[in-house]
Amino acid sequence: MARPPLPLLLLALGLAAAAKSPYQQVLQHSRLRGRQHGDPNVCAVQKLIGTNRKYFTNCKQWYQRKICGKSTVISYECCPGYEKVPGEKGCPAALPLSNIYETLGVVGSATTQLYSDRSNLRPEIEGPGSFTIFAPSNEAWASLSAETLDSLVSNVNIELLNALRYHMVNKRVLTDDLKHGTTLNSMYQDLPIHIHHYPNGIVTVNCARLLKADHHATNGVVHVIDKVIATTTNSIQHIIETEESLETLRAAVAASDLNSLLESEGQYTLLAPTNEAFEKIPRETLNRILGDPEALRDLLNHHILKSAMCAEAIIAGLTMETLEGTTLDVGCSGEELTLNGKPIIANKDVLATNGVIHFVNELLIPDSAKTLFELAQESEVSKSMDLFRQSGLSSHLTGSERVTLLAPVNDVFKDGLPIVDSNMKNLLLNHIVRDQLSSKYLYHGQKLQTLGDKELRVFVYRNNLCIENACIAAHDKRGRFGTLFSVDKMLTPPSGSVMDVLKADHRFSTLVAAIQSAGLTENLNRPGTFTVFAPTNEAFQAMPQGELNKLMGNAKELANILKFHVADEILVSGAVGALVRLKSMQGDKLEVSMKNNVIHINKEPVAESDIMATNGVIYAVNSVLQPQASRPQERGDEPADPALEIFKQASALSKVSQRNPRLAPVYSRLLARMKKNLG
């Protein structure tokens, strides 16, 4: 018979490997680690230091050497189905194949074997048939309370036989057949046994972990488990209704109409807040949530995971999705389960017909049920909240008004909070946007209306999302009525056009006069998207006198230089990474970069960033930028803008500049030339 081609053979082997269950994959990894130890049929096992808990090792655990955050030691044991032979390495011999009763004695479940004898189960599991028994380990039986154990082994009832038959299935079931979320009919009144087979290789039976699986017998298979399992006939809802410590939860579930869900078929995990958990919440907050059907439903759905998660399956951190659509970090620390890193689970693995319950002693309030002030308590914006509170704006952040809060992070106020006055209150009102927004739906050029009746623009960049000069510093938090945007600085709403802003700032009086002389006033007054690198009076003063005179005397050259300082797109400082190139209105490129938290333009440091205007943004620079390749310019005899009165007014606004002995002659020449041309 011809052999299949090698590629097809490899593909078949790959598919066979891919079809292995998670348990078998982890077992295979443990076997490979044992083989590296040099012995046949030896599996590497990780044991939690200070306990008897052992796990077959997966790749991640092998390198971390930790389970539930606790250190482990590696030991080497016979893989399931093999045993040692005196004088030989490893575990070369397969276990002798015998009936289930005999097999129990050699796989670490001698107590189950003993109780099978006492309960008269022995003849059945010695005889013909095909059974599966989930056999509690010796330690599992020893961990039962004396009262429970006494009730099982009493001679006056058949509880022990019933308990053992509940651990059995009337067919052979291997780990590959133990599918996640399925049930098997037990041999005790066909009551279901709940199976969970997790991606990390852990298999549980009614939340008891399989320790050693797939021990073959002549009449079936034996799986050793770490607990004695009990029957369950109650749904999650029924347990809530009968458990005294869940009285408040019971009322909340009824008020939110979740009863039918928690009674229905499915596999859920309920993180059930106890009465104590509800009592820890401020009364005002609790009453608000209980009186708001939508917030209450979100709260309860935040405590329900979409799949059943037994505690034994958690050996490292997992992110689990809730019915509310959010996620919780479910983990463990030694013997304790944790939620979002906190050991708040008081009682675990209460099994129900439709899932599992873990009792928690703290209420998990989702963002969707919180006010803006409550959202801020877990964010780096607490100082902003103090500022809003001092300004008397709390009502906007705690009520049912749909708003979005732009809250500067605490680092913005490292030198202390600003004084609260009417101007600061107005500014803070412009940090509250009408409507509840989500950052993922914002788009470039979008206009937002604030409670202070200002219009804010949205800028979308490759590396940032900004609203005016303030860029979003963290993922937004969406509360019941409001959304929190943490931003990297105090927002400065625009207060006029580029020309309006320049005229209002005495530092730019020379620039204003030059713009008017060069005929660019109308350009910088019109609607647009400009970035202006504005030379200060100091920048013009720093130029050689002859060069300054020549520049101010040539309208065309002056316009060319000024256009080199303007780009026709808005670039705020938060969008500047290592290097951003802009095309100037003159045609040459401008290079904007960030060095040591200072913006540089063509390698010159910027004196002040993000001076916002309705049609752009201004950067103050203390030098006049020169195009990289200067072009010969014709001398212009006429000023580009004949508006003499505007220039006179602009000059008069800067008494400081006129008193400067270097700048005064420049003004005089410009005025004389404009008068001559007008005459």
From TrEMBL:
GO terms for molecular function: cell adhesion molecule binding. It comes from the Eukaryota. Residues 1-18 form the signal peptide. It is found in: Secreted, Extracellular space, Extracellular matrix. One of its GO terms (biological process) is cell adhesion. Keywords: Cell adhesion, Disulfide bond, Extracellular matrix, Gamma-carboxyglutamic acid, Phosphoprotein, Repeat, Secreted, Signal. GO terms for cellular component: extracellular matrix; extracellular space. Transmembrane segments: none annotated. SMART domains: FAS1. PROSITE patterns: EMI, FAS1. Residues 39-93 form the EMI domain. Residues 97-229, 233-364, 368-491, 495-625 form the FAS1 domain. InterPro entries: Adhesion/Biosynth-related, EMI_domain, FAS1_dom_sf, FAS1_domain, TGFBI/POSTN. It holds the Pfam family Fasciclin. The keyword Secreted applies. Plays a role in cell adhesion. May play a role in cell-collagen interactions. Binds to type I, II, and IV collagens. This is Transforming growth factor-beta-induced protein ig-h3. It comes from Oceanodroma tethys. The lineage of its organism: Eukaryota, Metazoa, Chordata, Craniata, Vertebrata.
